[in-house]
Amino acid sequence: MPLKKGISLIYQMIENKKIDGLIKQLILTIGLGIALLVFALLASGIFFTGAVVQSTNGAIKDNANK
């Protein structure tokens, strides 16, 4: 029975055009999540690359001083 009520509620929302706002909100939420994930991956990649470059330069200087 609760499923039937839920389905009828969805149909009412579609008829009242309330579903459009929910879809827009869902798309914005998913888009924001993807954007944050991409930013986090790029930032961690930049920081990781910087750490690798610093350690490589340090190793080169150590070998040059030997």
Low-confidence region ranges: none
SSE order: HH
Instruction: Give the averaged pLDDT, no decimals.
Output: 74
Find the count of extended strands (DSSP E, 2+ residues). 0
Number of domains: 1
Count, helices:
2
Largest sheet: none
| Beta-strand residue percentage | under 5%
Distance between the termini: 80 Å
Secondary-structure class: mainly alpha
Specify the helix fraction band.
Answer: over 70%
Our Rg estimate from Cα atoms comes to 26 Å
- What is the 3D form? rod-shaped
Description:
The protein has one domain. Helices cover 92% and strands 0% of the residues. With 66 residues, the protein is an all-alpha fold.
Concise description?
By secondary structure, the protein is an all-alpha fold. Helices cover 92% and strands 0% of the residues.
